[in-house]
Amino acid sequence: MDTLLNILVVEDHDDLREATVATLVAMGHAVHGVDCAEALDDALVSFRPDLLLLDLNLPGEDGLSIARRMRAAAPEIGIIMVTARNQVRDVTQGYSSGADIYVTKPTAPEELSAAIHALARRLRPPARAGTQLVLNTHALQLEGPQASIAVSGHEYQLLAALARARDHRLETWQLLELLGKPIEEQEKRTLAVQIVRLRKKLLDAGASEPTIKALRGTGYQLCIALELR
User: Fold this and answer.
1) Which residues contact 132 (CB under 8 A, 6 or more apart)?
2) What CATH number did the domain enclosing 27 receive?
3) pLDDT tens across 90-121, in order?
4) Which of 43, 46, 142, 177 is deepest in the core (most CB within 10 A)?
């Protein structure tokens, strides 16, 4: 299992953010640090995180609100809250807002590493039996027994989200929010065209039909085994 992740650290304390980023980079992860929700949204344009390492006391939109928003838009993303709030009601609120793991400060590097590795078992699960296709995270390539096919950033986001989602299905509005698109009829039609193109790329790489099934009036489901690397 590949436990190296793309991690986005959201922490407004400059020294702590820089130290956390350096620690995670030393572990081998690809890491980007930001200090607020606005900077987070800017970073998401070009950086596709597997995991958010999220402080709660932030300027502007707080960490709980960010967690709820990200969980709705990208259900597959991992969220670890790292905060000084240590009361039972705080922990409960953190989990109800979308946290996978809630860690209180100060946090030792070993504790943080253990939390990330535990969560990575869900984010990067072992390949399922019969896996023939691989989505290469860094090269943006769909690799299969027949060919290796380049995918765009948006195509990668769609495939990765479907591969990580529960039952490999997501609703249309979730996919549109993931792509940063408004939930409008025109965008739904555009998404349908993107799915058609993805189906062709999956078949060209060597997948068997059906590849991505449209769930009438709901969304889409990935029907093949797809490993993320």
Assistant:
1) 144, 145, 206, 207, 225
2) 3.40.50.2300
3) 999 999 999 999 998 888 889 998 999 888 87
4) 142
